[in-house]
Amino acid sequence: YDRNNKILATSINTLSLNINPQEILNKHETTKKLLQILPQLNKKDILKKINSNKKHINLLREISPRDYVSLLQTGVEGLKIQKRSKRIYPNNTLASHILGGTDIDGKGIAGVEKKFDSELQKGKNITLSIHSGIQHITKKLLLDQITKFEAEGGAGIVMNAKNGQVYSTVSLPDYNANNYNNIFDKTLFNKATKGIYELGSTLKLITAAIAFESKLINENEVFDVSKPLKVSSKIINDFHPLSYSINIPEVIVHSSNIGSAKIAEKFGPNIQLKYLKSLGLTNILSLEIPELGKPQVLMDKKVLTTMTISYGHGISITPMHLASVTATIVNNGIKVDPTLILDQKSKKIKQIISPETSMKMKSIMRLVVSNKHGTAKKADVSGYLVGGKTGTAEKIKPNGGYFKKQNIVAFTGAFPMNDPKFIITIMIDNPKGQTFSYGFRTAGWVVAPVVKKLVTRIAPILDVKPQLESS
């Protein structure tokens, strides 16, 4: 069931048609009768089966009650009707990557079906935290944008910011769960929980949080970002260069790589890795499905590595990891572990960053969306105080290196920022610049508008009321 007791997957009884070739007297007559009732069968195939030396052969895994009655009336000898259970998914593609699938014998082989197979086999019901309506809306809006920007796919997550319950998690392209056994391509791959990606500047939120938390950087300190930064053989540039010095909040609002790199240089690799570990970015998540990706983080502790990780380069994580980190940052610094189960027992409280740092981060995330210089202006929704961070990164080639003209674009954030209740994390894979976007394919153009539409649609369902900015 979903969180509102709507059925997502259930088992029904069906009839299976088997035959004992040894009991058949007139094989051609039997074949003729079978084809009259079941025209979907193949004559050659039937003859081959009924000429077998075996005593038990399956003709059809599923027949209708009407066909069953017709078969009985023909008086064909050797027919064996067997009752069997069949797993069905009434919503077809809805939450298919989470539900997974079963094999032809009803055994769970992917997703929740596999994780809870023994409980389900015993007749126990499982209630997921998924909200079917929000799952559908997330998929629809994400799919519209993927189509609009001719992208390869994407992922979208809506999660409770305080207890980690996942209301929707979408991976596109998806598949019809009823056809799981007939699909053998990349649509089965879960981009939200299994796929790991460099999610670019969204990771600057972590860099700012570490800076405040480490106490090694004065809050009023400014960083000169007017010139590109040369470190060993690499030059760190900004997408929108500035000619003056900026403080930590401005580094995030303007999404300055140079500023982020200089901040990270101050707190160094050991502190950076300590926080990446405590935030769960070096381990697989404890989510209740088998399809989970393990982050890849460069740990050589070189100055350049520390700098590039600060803006999301050299660290690959799943969108679900990013949602978890975002929740922890806005949840007064208390660790939030995502869960797909509605009645999950509360875990031990882990304080990762201080409530003071969390408060500062919430203000900065709001500025990224509300400020005229913010990269996520297109995510702003009147009355809902959306906050977050965009990220645009070059896509990694399968054999190493980067595609210069292919991007992964992402947004992660929360609303309402004065008391964050829900996290939204969106990733779109390889969008193409369009005429209406003036050729741009950055997160600000591609992902931020999805967030705006999503908040507008789901806030009333989630009972989040609009409010004035000053409240």
Attribute tags:
471 residues, alpha+beta, five-stranded antiparallel β-sheet, three-stranded antiparallel β-sheet, 15 helices
Task: Explain the layout of strands and helices.
Elements: E1 10-19, H1 27-37, H2 43-50, E2 57-63, H3 65-74, E3 79-88, H4 96-99, E4 101-102, E5 108-110, H5 111-115, H6 117-121, H7 132-148, E6 153-160, E7 166-172, H8 204-214, E8 223-224, E9 229-231, E10 234-236, E11 245-246, H9 248-253, H10 257-278, E12 296-297, H11 303-310, E13 315-316, H12 319-330, H13 355-370, E14 387-396, E15 402-415, E16 422-429, H14 443-446, H15 448-458
Antiparallel strand pairs: 1-2, 1-3, 4-5, 6-7, 6-16, 8-11, 9-10, 12-13, 14-15, 15-16
Helix pairs in contact: 1-2, 7-15, 8-10, 8-13, 10-11
The portion of residues forming beta strands comes to 15-25%
Q: Give the integer mean of the pLDDT values.
A: 93
Low-confidence stretches: none
Number of helices: 15
- Major sheet: order of its strands? 7-6-16-15-14
Distance between the termini: 37 Å
Describe the largest sheet: 5 strands, antiparallel
According to DSSP, the number of beta strands is: 16
Helix percent band: 25-40%
Envelope shape: elongated
What oligomeric state do these chains adopt? single chain
Class by alpha and beta content: alpha+beta
Indicate the radius of gyration in whole angstroms. Answer: 27 Å
